[in-house]
Specification:
By secondary structure, the chain is an alpha+beta fold. It contains seven helices and six strands, in the order ααααβαβαββββα. The chain has helices at 2-16, 21-32, 43-57, 61-79, 90-93, 111-120, 181-191; strands at residues 86-88, 102-106, 125-134, 137-148, 151-157, 178-179. Strand 4 (137-148) and strand 5 (151-157) form a beta hairpin. The chain starts with a helix and ends in an 11-residue tail after the last helix.
Length: 202
């Protein structure tokens, strides 16, 4: 049952654009009639199934979709460079579904700086709040959602002191993997078959 739930959750994420592992596994479990919480797979199991599913059923369109989302993410990061942006989530992981949002972490001196930046550029946005964790210590985080060239962009705005911290979405969860501007640019170049900067001829 655990393996069946992982496979069903992966399919939901790939085909229906569900980006939340917990939501996908709950829907998959309900669809399969599972009642034992111990049968629920971990996020690592679902991610492995998701990668396998994408490689098998979306081998042509998925790499192109991820490449385009990473390109748009880099453009947004360049625009927001003063706020020390990092890419995270499925676009960085390479598992982005058809409706995936670009997820960026920002570390400005004040969240109001980000909002003023967007207002000055006449970019409409919605603001909400969530929690992130350093160990078991909770952090209140502002989340700014907007459209970026037709793609959802979600900005999680942290305190600048958190930039060097290992951040998690839950106290017991995995540390969030993230990449800065230079790393994302290198990732895009590697996928396109470009040589590394130090390998390019002068």
């Amino acid at each position: 049952m655990r393996a069946r739930i992982a496979a069903a959750a992966a399919r939901l994420m790939a085909e229906d654009g569900i980006g939340d592992f917990a939501l996908a596994k709950r829907k998959a479990a309900r669809g399969l009639g599972a009642t034992d919480r111990e049968a629920l797979p971990g996020n690592d199991e679902i991610e492995a199934e998701l990668r396998a599913y994408l490689a098998l059923y979306q081998a042509d369109e998925h790499p192109a979709r991820v490449a385009e989302l990473r390109r748009l993410a880099l453009e947004a990061m360049d625009e927001l460079s003063r706020f020390n942006p990092y890419l995270t989530g499925p676009v960085l992981a390479g598992t982005a579904g058809p409706y995936a949002a670009i997820e960026l972490q920002l570390f400005p001196e004040s969240s109001k700086e980000v909002e003023l930046f967007l207002i000055d550029r006449d970019l409409r946005y919605e603001a909400s709040d969530t929690r992130r964790y350093t160990g078991d210590r909770a952090r209140a985080v502002a989340v700014i959602s907007l459209d970026w060239q037709g793609v959802p962009l979600r900005l999680s705005v942290f305190d600048p002191r958190d930039e060097r911290s290992a951040l998690k979405t839950t106290p017991a969860g995995r540390v969030t993997v993230r990449a800065g501007i230079a790393e994302v640019r290198a990732l895009i170049g590697a996928a396109a078959g470009e040589p590394a900067d130090d390998a390019r001829p002068a």
